[in-house]
Amino acid sequence: MTDNPKTAPLYQRVKQHMTDRVSSGEWRDGMRLPSEHELVESLGVSRMTIHRALRELSAEGLITRLQGIGSFVAAPKPRSELLELRDIVEDIQNRGHTHSARLITMEAIRATPDLAADFEMRAGTKLFHSIIVHDEDDHPVQIEERFISPFFAPHYPEQDFTRQSTNRYLQSIAAASEVEHVVSAIMPDRQTRHWLRIPATEACLLLTRRTWAGGAPATRSRFTYPGSRYSLGGRFTPAG
What is the model's pTM? Predict the structure, then answer.
């Protein structure tokens, strides 16, 4: 930690020490950092100092902290395109990483008044509901929750979405004729934190999407991303 002025607070000197290791390539993307105890021993500082340095590096996006597992050098945040119906499986594979999916829920439900309004149907009409967690190299990067009109995809519950993506399956039925996107920042509830393996202090990005096929409502979906591991963006050509 000799690169920093000795007048700098100790935790900032520890942060710079770690940042230098990442910048030099000594600590590579995805590499597990030494434990807090090991850092205390090797750097000769207090556990409180190490904890603050790690907390701030996590907030700045340089490292990822997984509760009960450890701290890792954060890979550059992948970006999900807002203006396209992108396939998360292809996105992950195109980055040279491994995709896996966990099916949490697949069920038929009765539409609440809110859902019925979105699907332009009577309350109580049947809808399909699914929740899938997508992992990139065993790190959760997206919770995908979908409500599907049976009139659009009558065989939706019969599919194995651990082997194929919902996006690819739905587009094989019919291309979306209209898409609505809304992005917001949220503080996750306990279940979301559990599925994404993030601390209570970490915010999430929420993308809400509605699609129409042939002018009729087809799907309503919620995609939740851990804020420290994902970014959303898009590029388009303005009309006129």
Answer: 0.65
